[in-house]
User: What shape does this take?
Amino acid sequence: MIALKEFLQNKGEAYSNIDIERMPHFWSECAYLFSPPPIVQVIGTNGKGSAGRILAEFCRSKGIRVAHYSSPHITRFNERFWLDGADASDAALEEAHKRTLSKIGFKRADSLSYFEYATILAIELFSDRDLAVMEAGLGGEYDATSVFPCVLLLVTPIDYDHQHILGSSIEAIAETKLKAMRSTTILAKQKYAIVYEIAEHIAEQKGQKLFKARDLAPTFDHFETKESPRFMAINRQLAFAAASYLGYNPSVAPFRINPMPARLSAIAPNIRVDVGHNAAAALAILEEYRGRQVTLIYNSFSDKDYKAILRILKPIVKRCLVIRLDHARAASREAIAAALENEKIEWSEFDGAISDSETYLVFGGFSVVETFLKAWNAR
Assistant: This one.
């Protein structure tokens, strides 16, 4: 039997052609082979991982045997599978892989994409949990995680991202994501009023209950802290609302945490890393650093709006160090350089040197943070 690591390497993590019919067809044929736990699904644009992990951490503090599935990972595949406070071990993943292959066969498993197989692996791995919090990968209606029944759907702020797949307008993006509604839904604080309107329309069509996070949780400012980014308050409020709906009698204190790595996380007194990669994330960073200057360590995938991101970040950027990305989707050096020069941002290539006298922000996505951390840890 092929080992998990080799099996995944043969698939390749990068997505190219998304088949929206493959996962529903697979699940219709194979659902009887699996025993999913009760699932809380999390969809949206930004904050899915953090909102899900905060909810999972709270459930764990209440004695619930809980799992959390997120994506992508930063350095290790294991990061996607969190069980009762820790990433899944290599041994646990390998055993789940063996059980999954024995159930569905190599041919079926091989037909699934990297993310689809990881999602099925999570369902197998989490089968003995009391609750699983599962983050959608891309979109909503057609996401691999949307084939499973769920007890609750959480929607983080919806904004522009993956327009080439989800649509060029907020209306189109919101509709694609919110068509995943198939259970009671809780909406986080939204930037665009149209998102609430679309959600209400779909909920009415499907006969589903719809709440806003503020209906089930204290006001937004209750969740702001000096210790973590202000944008994290949105995720805390949503997690609080979910815990309240699920009957876990929440209190504000346990939600004053930011347990997901690389969400404006400090890895040194003068270095923070953030996996944000779209304009909405850049605006949140701008608000957090307003009035201060940072040395930005940056790069981007070619399908991201890096021109808009750099335009947004310009007021807080002293200079930019462009880190090399060894990835098929990476933007060209010339394209990033042109965008920086257009904004009149001083730049040079990142050579690995870090000065104690400068404040650094590593930003641009999971691959940027992963590349930086490998260089940082190899010092």
